[in-house]
Write a structure and sequence with these properties.
With about 600 residues, this protein is of the alpha+beta class. The chain has 16 helices and 25 strands. The relative contact order is 0.19. The N terminus is likely disordered. One of its GO terms (molecular function) is peptide transmembrane transporter activity.
């Protein structure tokens, strides 16, 4: 995310949150269209390498859980500019007003409402962008919140009690209580996506546009229509629905194989105008193929695996610079607490402790990631200094120790048989396996992991070996990241889609946070990106406090609680990618929120 917090939601990112992978090229001609090399000031084209085995698959500026990833969000935001672009595009995380439709946000003195001002902006068809376009998004999300990937019960849009239009360029959103203004701006208001009501407020291609969104029934029908249209990837460049845009770019082509071509929006009237006319986003399936494209000069902005850092000098000799892209993210492997076979085991804290103590993050960071990852022991990013991380998380409550992990299991009714732990002491007493764990249950768990990344494969193999030392059998299945996401959703034990046990989609970070790292989408009960259905009433209270308190103490308490309670398997957080950038390409910072911002890219020589 993927998950990234997309605007992950961000950020899955996930917009997000945001879900991402590191990566590699589609063989044949599909990975290298566009110009062969773009290294001069007169060039109007750039070729950007998308992560390996990743195909962009969503354009609508509202995300569902299976479409949470930062690349989808970055493309969408280049076409439909966010109301409030809160990102790290300038090198520090904050409000990027050049690429925002809003120019101001004034909070009331009691922090219970905000009044937002729109700039003098227009859609590409010449119509003015107004408060009505924001209300359109607001109404759709209100009526369809359960299908919105960024939804967490009690948070937006639940805590937005009213939307009041003042005039065409001013509106007020009222909250149900006072909130931390930093959190509200960076994490909630930044998710609002202004959409063309005069084009999209209908229920069929031939239907008339009206005020359907202003009733719950109408809003649901419009939502269904737009989401169904967004599933038709082959129509992104031709369907009139997607031609009315507000951002610096518009879609020139969008292949189901993953290649996307953006071209400058000639009608754009904002402050973040595109510096390079044509942007080719190229898909790859293997790192080797992507690196071959770099060596051939057909990629201007690409990447290498951390394991290939020793080749830095060869890329410099070919006219590239190597720039690590660090991220404000965490990496983890979600448990499916409702899986009928292993869910009862995962619900036992001692079992999760044994699993976590079998993960050697220090060695994984050093060997698998070649020193470009940092150990992470809780829900707050540790790759960058911040005041949000608790001492408990920093100090690692569960250091790597497979002997201690094995003893923890044997102390709770498990016996090693043929190399695998088996529950021989069922029950819920102190020295028993725990409620719901049947006698004879084998400690065998399986991960559905992203394919296409050697780094991921190496990490899974290393985990398999260390788990075996504890007596835990660890099976590995792989699939493209979009497939992993679609198969790893929230479920109940009686559903056919609840067969997944563990999921992994984060070689370059599982979740990219907005500026304020609260966990409402990820770990709150019912959170839109709480894939494994983790639920803890005390943690829910702490998460709620992080959104209302102006003190960092609330975030630190949350950090400490989840470092100890282990809602997921914490894993090393790597750099988003090791970028390889053609000399002369500049004008931008690599956004720690994992978005890319093509309008900022420019040829400087």
């Amino acid at each position: 995310m993927f998950l990234a917090h997309t605007a992950a939601g961000r950020r899955w990112a996930l917009v997000a949150g945001a879900v991402v992978t590191t990566g590699a090229l589609l063989t044949g001609c599909s990975g290298g269209g566009g110009s062969s090399s773009s290294g001069s000031a007169s060039s109007d084209t750039i070729n950007y390498a998308l992560p390996a085995n990743f195909t962009p698959n969503w354009i609508l500026p509202v995300g569902t859980a299976s479409h949470l990833n930062t690349n989808n969000a970055s493309i969408s935001q280049a076409v439909w500019e966010p109301l409030i672009a809160y990102d790290g595009s300038t090198g520090t995380v904050g409000w990027n007003k050049d690429n925002s439709l809003a120019t101001d946000a004034k909070f009331a003195a009691d922090s219970k409402s905000v009044t937002i001002t729109l700039g003098d902006r227009h859609w590409s068809d010449g119509k003015q962008i107004t408060s009505r376009d924001v209300e359109f998004w607001f109404n759709l999300v209100k009526a369809n919140k359960a299908d919105w990937a960024s939804y967490s019960p009690g948070k937006a849009p639940d805590n937005w009690t009213s939307f009041k239009t003042i005039d065409d360029t001013h509106f007020t959103i009222t909250f149900d209580k006072a909130y931390n203004q930093e959190w509200m701006l960076a994490n909630e208001l930044s998710m609002i996506r202004t959409m063309p009501q005069h084009v999209w407020d209908k229920t069929s291609d031939s239907g008339a546009v009206s005020d359907l969104d202003r009733t719950a029934v109408g809003a649901k029908k419009v939502w269904t229509y737009l989401n169904n249209a967004a599933k038709k990837i082959s129509g992104y460049a031709t369907d009139p629905l997607w031609k009315t845009v507000s951002g610096p770019y518009t879609i020139k082509s969008f292949s189901t194989a993953g290649k996307v071509e953006l071209t400058a929006n000639a009608k754009y009237d904002g402050g973040g105008k595109a510096n390079i006319k044509n942007v080719n986003l190229l898909p790859f399936t293997t790192t080797d193929a992507e690196e071959n494209a770099l060596r051939a000069g057909t990629v201007d902005y690409g990447y290498i695996n951390a394991t290939d850092l020793s080749q830095e000098s060869s890329f410099k000799a070919k006219g590239y610079s190597v720039k690590p892209w660090t991220g404000w993210a965490i990496t983890y492997m979600p448990y499916n607490f409702n899986n009928p076979a292993m869910g009862p085991v995962f619900k036992q804290l001692y079992a999760r402790q044994a699993i976590q103590m079998s993960v050697d993050q220090t060695t994984l960071s050093k060997v698998v990631f070649n020193g470009t990852a940092v150990s992470t022991y809780g829900p707050i990013p540790q790759g960058q200094e911040s005041s949000f991380v608790s001492p408990e998380q920093k100090n690692n409550p569960y250091p790597f120790d497979t002997a201690k992990a094995k003893k923890l299991l044997t102390d709770h009714g498990w016996t090693e048989q043929g190399g695998t732990m088996v529950c021989t002491g069922p029950g819920s007493g102190d020295n028993q396996c725990g409620a719901g764990v049947a006698k004879g249950t084998k400690f065998e768990m399986e991960v559905l992991s992203q394919s296409g990344s050697t780094v991921t494969d190496n990490m899974m193999s290393a985990l398999q070996s260390s788990f075996a030392k504890t007596g835990i059998k660890f099976g590995i299945k792989t699939a493209p990241v979009n497939s992993v996401l679609s198969q790893s959703g929230q479920c109940t034990a009686d559903e056919s889609g609840c067969k997944w046990q563990l999921s992994f989609f984060g070689t370059a970070g599982s979740w990219y946070f907005p500026a304020y790292p609260s966990g409402d989408s990820l770990f709150a009960t019912g959170g839109g990106s709480n894939f494994g259905s983790y639920s803890n009433a005390e943690v829910d209270k702490l998460i709620n406090e992080t959104t209302t308190s102006s003190s960092n103490e609330a975030v630190q308490k949350y950090s400490a609680a989840l470092a100890k309670d282990l809602p997921v398997i914490w894993l090393p957080e790597p750099d988003y990618q090791i970028s390889v950038v053609k000399d002369g390409l500049g004008g931008f910072a690599q956004d720690s929120l994992a978005n890319f911002h093509p309008a900022m890219w420019k040829w400087t020589k």
